[in-house]
């Protein structure tokens, strides 16, 4: 999964309840936590899932969308993914294709059926909202380790769960974030929460991972993602269902023509 840098937590008063220096000396570095999380998720090859996206404005009004997700693990590079919108009717057939790279800019395309054309997402637009949600385009890409630098912040217990807390800073200067504070559980190295800081280094969003299930006796996948925008009061929930692993997906399922074939 990912990476971190320079720790400012004490000065910023994050109140993480860190362990003592003696204990911290025995703990992993930030990059070691990210690398171990990444290692534990290797080898799934491909998966599909059904998704429900719920968008809420600051008044609590909701709108929902139904989608499908296909993901292909790529050797020596980042994952490829395809998101297909099924409902409501006004977005049905819209498809988003993402090629995450371990290093350098990701490749992203959006197919708009009403216009019958494929739109490439420019690298300097990756911080923009994904289909009106509180997720940015860069949030949708797989979080490759080399895309960040890391610092180990400390360890704390949250709701009875022992966590590692790291800070990661995007390598890409065009990222919409200056840094992210990330919580992993110590037992399985699963992402639990991410705080995103904007270009002014102010807290922008918090992403919470809710309820994990294990598949194939190894791979952990979350049931629900909750993204809250602290500056606008808006939020987006992504719920996942019917995960299927190793379904036989190939590179052809993720070429650009797959955007137009998506139904």
Describe, in plain words, how this protein is organized in 3D.
The protein is mainly beta. It has 5 helices and 13 strands. The protein has helices at about 10, 20-25, 30-40, 135-140, 255-260, and strands spanning about 45-55, 60-70, 80-85, 95-100, 105-110, 115-120, 150-160, 160-170, 180-185, 190-195, 205-215, 220-230, 235-245. The protein has a 13-stranded antiparallel β-sheet, with helices on one face. Strand 8 (about 160-170) and strand 9 form a beta hairpin. The longest helix is centred in the N-terminal third of the chain and has 11 residues, at about 30-40.
Task: Summarize the model shown.
The chain has helices spanning 9-12, 21-24, 30-40, 137-140, 257-261, and strands spanning 46-56, 62-72, 80-87, 95-99, 107-112, 117-120, 148-158, 161-170, 179-185, 191-197, 203-215, 219-229, 235-245. By secondary structure, it is mostly beta strands. It starts with 8 loop residues before the first helix and ends with a helix.
Give the count of helical stretches. Answer: 5
CATH class: Mainly Beta
User: SSE order, as H and E?
Assistant: HHHEEEEEEHEEEEEEEH
Corresponding CATH superfamily: Lipoprotein localisation LolA/LolB/LppX
- Rg, Cα atoms, Å: 18 Å
- In which order are the strands of the major sheet placed? 6-5-4-3-2-1-13-12-11-10-9-8-7
**What count of structural domains?**
1
Assign a percent range to the helix content. 10-25%
């Amino acid at each position: 999964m990912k990476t971190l840098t320079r720790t400012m937590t004490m000065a910023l008063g994050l109140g993480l309840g860190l362990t003592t220096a003696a204990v911290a000396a025995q703990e992993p570095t930030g990059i070691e936590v990210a690398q171990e999380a990444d290692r534990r998720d290797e080898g799934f090859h491909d998966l599909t899932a059904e998704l429900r996206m719920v968008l809420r404005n600051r008044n609590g009004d909701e709108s929902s969308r139904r989608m499908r997700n296909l993901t292909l693990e790529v050797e020596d590079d980042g994952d490829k993914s395809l998101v297909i919108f099924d409902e409501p009717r006004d977005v049905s057939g819209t498809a988003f294709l993402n090629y995450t790279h371990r290093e350098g800019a990701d490749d992203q395309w959006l197919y708009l059926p009403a216009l019958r054309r494929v739109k490439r997402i420019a690298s300097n637009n990756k911080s923009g909202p994904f289909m009106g949600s509180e997720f940015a385009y860069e949030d949708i890409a797989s979080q490759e380790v080399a895309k960040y630098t890391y610092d180990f912040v400390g360890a704390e217990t949250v709701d009875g769960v022992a966590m590692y807390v790291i800070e990661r800073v995007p390598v890409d200067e065009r990222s919409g974030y200056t840094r992210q504070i990330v919580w992993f559980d110590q037992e399985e190295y699963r992402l639990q929460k991410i705080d995103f800081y904007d270009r002014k280094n102010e807290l922008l969003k918090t992403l919470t991972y809710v309820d994990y299930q294990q598949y194939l006796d190894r791979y952990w996948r979350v049931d629900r993602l909750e993204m809250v925008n602290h500056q606008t009061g808006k939020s987006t929930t992504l719920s996942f269902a019917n995960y299927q692993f190793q379904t036989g997906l190939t590179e052809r399922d993720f070429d650009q023509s797959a955007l137009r074939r998506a139904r």
